[in-house]
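One example copied in:
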Amino acid sequence: MRLIFTILLLLAILPAGFSQDINPEVVGKKLLEKIAGQPDDFHSVHVVLADRVDLAALDAELSSRRAKPEERSEIVLNALKIKAQQTQTDLLALLKNSPHVQAETIRSYWIANAIFAKMKPEMIAELSRRPDVAWIGLNGKLELEKFECAPPPPNFVPNGKEVGLSVINAPALWAMGYTGYGQIAFTNDTGIDPSHPALASRYRGFSVPKEQAWFDVDSLLNPTGDYTPVDCHNHGTHVTGTILGLDRLQNDTIGVAFNAQWIGSPTIQPCSETGTEDNVAAFEWSLDPDGNPATTDDQPDIINNSWYDPSLDTADCFSVYVPILEAMEAAEIVVVFSAGNAGPDPSTITPPHNINLNLVNSFTVGALNGNVVSLPIASFSSRGPSTCGGDSSILIKPEVSAPGVSVRSCIPGGYDFLQGTSMASPHVSGAVLLLKEAFPELTAQELKLALYYTCTDLGDPGEDNVFGMGVINVLAAFNHLLELGHVPVSPHKSLDLLMVDMQAESFACNNEIHASLVVENAGLDTVYSFEVACEFDAINNVHPWAGVLAPGQRIKIVLPTFLAVAGESELTIRLQNPNGAADQRPLNDIFKRKVIVTDRERFPAHVEGNASAGICENTPALLRGEYDGTGSVQVKWFDQPVGGNLLGEGITFVTPPLAQADTFYAEATYFEHVG
């Protein structure tokens, strides 16, 4: 008895937070490994609560009664928010008052009923034994799915439509009039270049407040941020181009749903330093960008993902991403994942894409070679089966395949060929947008199942762990939905003006703003009149246009010069009132550009030689400042109007060899001897 009593006493005085007291059933393996190596450190973790909304049951109930999108979204969002409010209070109080937690790092998220914080193993151990905690995982850095540059495919011809678009049968839906108008794509990636000519006009921040179109986790700490899109890599811009890219002036179609709009978030390394929390915050933001649960026109229709989370083990079949994927599907947002580039070995689908909640969640895409008639799978494309168990189709991964080899799309400053499953998943995302335009009342699961069940079978007969169900066929999916009795909405509009392009100087001298635009009649009716509204700071000008603009016809309009006070602001140009009525597709009517206005006079310069004949490709040009000889002048040449790189000095300047149109800026300082 004495020996037993002594042992019990020793156990009673051991510190409660020793790592051997951690319940390993609810703690991620990567976190356990980190604690073992750094037992005295603070660790950044996420804690998922056990009491969560039964989203699968809620989704089924809403689907059974064909709830409208607005009703469904409001019910799902309110349920998630109320559950978090009801269940997180005690745990948050515990964390805020613990010396083992860095209180300033505590943040809660309702999308998964999860809390993030930096804490020591003592607190992790205590939480792991609480009945209200379901999971504790590492908050790690996200990683970009590996991809690589690729050579152009044989017989490549620019300024047409990319081959992958034909492989998935997208042109057949374009011919019907479905091009993705009114749909929103969320690229959860390295960011997006907002100035790219194939993407700029589809930026949603032109038509809504910018904080509803761009999310950066820094905005959680700095709500006054400028929310300006940027790509810290080429990857996110390339992905977005395949979803919806189109250079209208060049008729260069690189995207599946080229009339859709884009929003984004730079969550992937090297853009972000935190990772998992960035991702959770971005997904939560996407459910309610405008802060009103009753609205759905602010939500994306698809979220494209080309990342994986290395803080998860492939055997981690429950993590913070499980309730997130359930929430997105219940709220009618399609989440598309690239399968990963760890093939050809089996069970190489990267986490959390290996999760298999149902036939199409997660919806994971393998990469095939669309430049070869037989459409072979890419050797790098990750294979199934899932490591999360189940049987039959639940176990098989990926779900579908799409072109991902030598895919041409946008990069900042131009175009390039890349390959990886990251290039395949945006084909699927674009296909969803086309179907969503045609069938706006269908749920996320119904849209995914339509693509899933109508794939063109490749590889082994039936579904397999290489191609999944095969290559997607968006026309077959459309016809399948017709056969099920769904009625598509008409894509044709009688009055639809489209702003093809808008040009304005980013640096305006003499207080003068010059702008021009190209307008297309994309509707069915001939347009005889419309207005061009210009806004800059407090200046509002409306310019009427009258004439004959037939369906499909384009015109260029040079706007009258207008005066503005010195300063930096955004120039907004909007088309309105075609034939005196409201435009039926107003998202096509607006373009914005930052302009710096100065009261300084313009320093004139010109290209020496016969500039009207053009400059040969890959040759330099000689630029000369027009100086009248009064006094003396010092001229410096830059690549940007403000804050640019100094390229040269002198009244003349020889450019580098020019592969494309470019702009150079001269700054002149005048000197005069006054005695």
